[in-house]
Amino acid sequence: MTIIPSFLLKKIYKKGSLRLIEEGIAFELKNILAPGFITGINFVKINDTIYNSSFIKIIKSGVATLAEHVSSENPMLVKLNEDITCILNNEFDSGINCFSEPAAQLQKGINNIIVELTSLDAGRVQINLSDMV
Amino acid sequence: MIIDYDKYSLIINNKKVLINSAAFHYFRCPGIDTWRDRLSKIKACGYNTVDFYFCWGYHSHKPGAYDFTGIRDIRALLDLTVELDLHVIARPGPFINAELSLGGLPTWLLNIPGMIIRNKKDGNFVYSKPYMKALREWYSRIIPIINEYHNIIAFQIENEYFTNEAEPDYMQELYDMSRSLGIKAPIFHNDALSVGLYSDIVNIYAFDNYPTINLNYNWKDFPDTFGVLDNAESNLKEYKDDAPLLIAELQAGWFDRWDGIGYEKIHPHFEEQHINIVTKTALSQGITMFNHYMGCGGTSWDKLASCEVYTSYDFAAPISETGIPRKNYFKAKQINYFLNSFNLASTELIEEFHAEVVACHSELDSESIRQLESVSKTEQILKQVQDDNSMQDTILENENLFIKLRKDNLNGCKWLFIRNFNILDKNLNILDKFNIKIKPFDMKILPVDLNLNACKIDFSSMEIFARVENANHEKVFLLIDKDSEIYISAPLINGINRIKSDNLEDLSSYKFTKDDQITEIIFIKPETADKTWIINNKILTGVDFLTDNSAKAAFKKAFEKEDLPQLTNWKAFKCSPEIDFNYDYSSWDVLNEPEKFDCITNATYDDYIWYKGSFKHTPDMIEISAKHCWAVYLNGKQIYQHDTLGIDHEISENITFEINKHFSHPTGRNELTILVQNLGFDKGFQNELVAPRGILSLKTIPEKEIEWRIRGGLAPVIEEWDFMPEDNLENSSENAYLVQLSANFKINPANKKVEFNPLLLDLSDAKFNKADIYLNGNHIGRFWKSKGPQTLFYMPEEFINPVNRLSLIIWDRENVINFNKDFDSGQVCVNIKIRNIQAFELKSVEGLNLT
């Protein structure tokens, strides 16, 4: 259980931001709650595909970070009202392909999204969303 | 008292009032004398309001039964607030959190069929008629008492409540119930998430603000620490535009927990800089109602504590658990005195003004030079941006500077709020003409165009400490700060209009006259200000603190050994006969449901719960899950022990262990005894409230039919062994008993009138790992050396008599044999002492020189 109610978690997600870009799948989050530390971006699930932290890139204040580098030893400070772009792909810097399937895809219409991260203040937080493409 | 409000502030009896409040837990500071002392210190600190949680579970131990007498006499508590001329914020829950077991709710709720506490299950809203009926009972008992008092300025319903979809039903019903029971004051709810929850139901929107809760990090390393406060006016005011914002809990400290870092390491996070910044940042947002949480530390005695926290709830608060003011108290006093001198109940943000960072001139070490180089680069960028005419707050924020200017509608002046979140001094030019040097991690509120009776302060980079006015003589105290100055407009004396702080002596003054008015500006060093008090518009200096409604002044005493009572006449009792084979437990209860051992099913809410059962032939193994500390005894001998302490939904340990058959009884008839100590229920903020204690599951392998019986409580507590003859029990058995260790000490009651000398039990060098501490039969602490970190236990004055019995019930499961040897050789008691922090001499203020 997280202390943050689900209706609020949904507000963190910028509706309509889900899209395909050259690097993969992208979407936007905005910290509307309070300044805080993210200590882990555990996974993102789009429909039936799970992207673990090796395959998630975070862009914040113009700086890109691989999610696997975010940890309790190396937490990510997210300011109030700060925007975060998440980019998912099965090939990032390592060049390792995490799936046997082809590159990241979205389906037309409703896509279901689950983002799970760990925050110092709120513990494990799972955000269940859907967005149209 | 007529209470109204507008968009700026509360309006009490037609006067706009800024509410500066301190939170006080009466249940953690038992006794009317202690209430009087702590509330007097809150008042002397300049607070005009005190905030009380009213704790349902503390007053009600069974349905329909309520105790508002003795240490639970809240009329006596509220009478004191009237005597001290304090307003009251009343917060009767029903849930209050406060790191209390079950969030302050009574345990009997857990046994009402169909009960869904707080109408909330797994985060979802589920309306529960039994719950609403029970809480109506609480409200119908507590609200009529609250209604007897006319100094209640705000009333809170629920606390930190939210559900997954934020349904309004429960909050609306609480609001309507409160009004129907006669609550007249504005009603608020405290939103823990600062997102506007339930703001359309209440009169005033209130929120928690705890910028610093992860103490593994230093808040100074993160310029965004105060981000929510920095944006409160723009982000939160819109939730209730016609009413003032209330910070129902503005961080003045933080609690420690089992396995925590200890209050010695928490204090440095919350000394004067933190409370200074949170409070002044709040004021910079036009906030006119705040409540420092906590204003005063306390003790989670008896069964108050949630499982998360140990006994001390010192909170690093301005007034310590023992009642001694500390650094953040004196900083709060500076701010409160200023607020009491100039009413900031109605201010407006001025969007456009000039502020410019200018060159630094500091003596620097190499690290600072490195930092400065990086700062200088930023300044160059700043300058460029400034040339582009886009210089504003955002840019200063990049410099880790925070600046706001507010117009004061009541005092006809402006106030400059400035914060430096850098490791170096910062020099600024403000409003095109005034220079300020601001120290690292400092924040100031500075007057601009402030008209006094006989002169005008154009600007001062020294802050105002206080103003006192008697007849035509106004005294304004300014805090001397290095490299600061004050600009004063004519009419002048001595032709001076700019006074630099470097030339100022402590308590030096300048007098100005205009018509028949005199304004005396007195410059005071902060350390002198700490010892300066205003009592009924008179000034008293050189005093460490005031108590007894400012009738008594305290002065530090030099340490004298005779100030400390000696523990004498040590005795020991083996105090767990329940462990013994053949102990008669036929009067214990049979489990309410077979295989259901937990405290809720069996309605057994003691912190210690015994289980006992007999059987033929010894099983091979036992599989058990229990909360929190437990031991299993076979025929009187300890065969296993374990602790399960952690967040309930994350920790669910099933332990399986083999039974040592060495202790099986030759007749084939055997007894298992299990003792489980729980450290309280969860507080219910982050986790589910309803989480059972005691044995959660138990089975023998192979399974045997055992008729288990259950009983709560330890024999010495139930049977009041404190009053039994003081004979040592014989050491005739090697059974792993709990041991009660007792000693006496005496206090001279006459000292109480002439000194303030809080006493603590020092177990720093104790030879045992775990004990419960009783003072004259009152449970005052849980000592657990290996889980720590608390080793000093405050002895609440309410429980101290002229002649006293101190008892420790020691459960040394890890070290049974050595403990017995240590005790026999007298080693157990030798390191247990009573000590103090500091003794103060109390003198009547009447006999002191007030000017």
Task: Give a structural overview.
The complex is a heterodimer of chains A (133) and B (851). Chain A has a single domain, classed as Immunoglobulin-like. Helices cover 5% and strands 47% of the residues of chain A. Chain A contains 1 helix and 10 strands; from the N terminus they run H-E-E-E-E-E-E-E-E-E-E. In chain A, strand 1 (19-21) and strand 2 (24-30) form a beta hairpin. The radius of gyration of chain A is 14 Å and the shape is globular. Chain A starts with 5 loop residues before the first helix and ends with a strand. By secondary structure, chain B is α+β, with helices and mostly antiparallel strands. Chain B has an 8-stranded parallel β-barrel with strand order 4-5-6-9-10-11-12-13. A 7-stranded antiparallel beta sheet of chain B has the order 16-18-19-22-23-26-27. A 6-stranded antiparallel beta sheet of chain B has the order 35-43-36-41-38-39, with no helix packed on it. The radius of gyration of chain B is 30 Å and the shape is globular. Residues 361-365 and 367-395 of chain B have low confidence and may be disordered. Classes of the chains: A mainly beta (133), B alpha+beta (851). The interface between A and B is medium-sized, with 20 and 28 residues.
